Amino acid sequence: MEKLNCWEFKKCGxxxxxxxxxELGVCPATVNTKLHGSHGGKNAGRACWxxxxxxxxxxxxxxFAQKYGNCIxxxxxxxxKTEEGVKYELSAVLLSKLTGIELDESKVxxLNCWEFKKCGxxxxxxxxxELGVCPATVNTKLHGTHGGKNAGRACWxxxxxxxxxxxxxxFAQKYGNCVxxxxxxxxKEEEREKYELSAxxxxxLTGELNGPDEEDKDKNKK
Length: 222
Fold this sequence. Notes:
Number of helices: 13
Distance between the termini: 16 Å
Strand order of the largest sheet: 1-2
Helix content: 25-40%
Structural class: mainly alpha
Shape: elongated
Radius of gyration: 19 Å
Largest sheet: 2 strands, antiparallel
């Protein structure tokens, strides 16, 4: 299987000698040697999401923190994750290579949804009076899932969580939106092979396993 670099897949024209170099400049990902070889790519060609100043969504992006939410929705990012499987390198590892600061993986903080989204619906949060306490923040049945507090890292299976600017309904009603969420994608990236399928999480909630969910079906097709 040929492993494409981002500029080959996206055809952005920002690689050295590319068609858009005079207009937009050379993309830093195409010349960043610190990430050369990551996921089998040339320079940062298969780790472009960790590099500031890459070209995504029709415009030059900012820092990793500023652009990551868009990057995890990118078809190339998803392609690399799928192709690499268990060999996929977490963004924290890539950033460690970029900065030269050795990563202590035991100290990488696993955020809960309310810490990442800053929704203010955790007990004592700023939006509790307006929107109420989010069920995910107090659901003890999912405590510890993916290393989170209560359902803080499995919020997508809990009815009544706050997503997309509004309170959501049941799992079946909201799941289509949840899988597009930057936090959902972040948890899947961080957990990798330890990620628990939604059917498993629902079984923890209800006490019974009803059969494969959409994730199971997709996994079986591959």
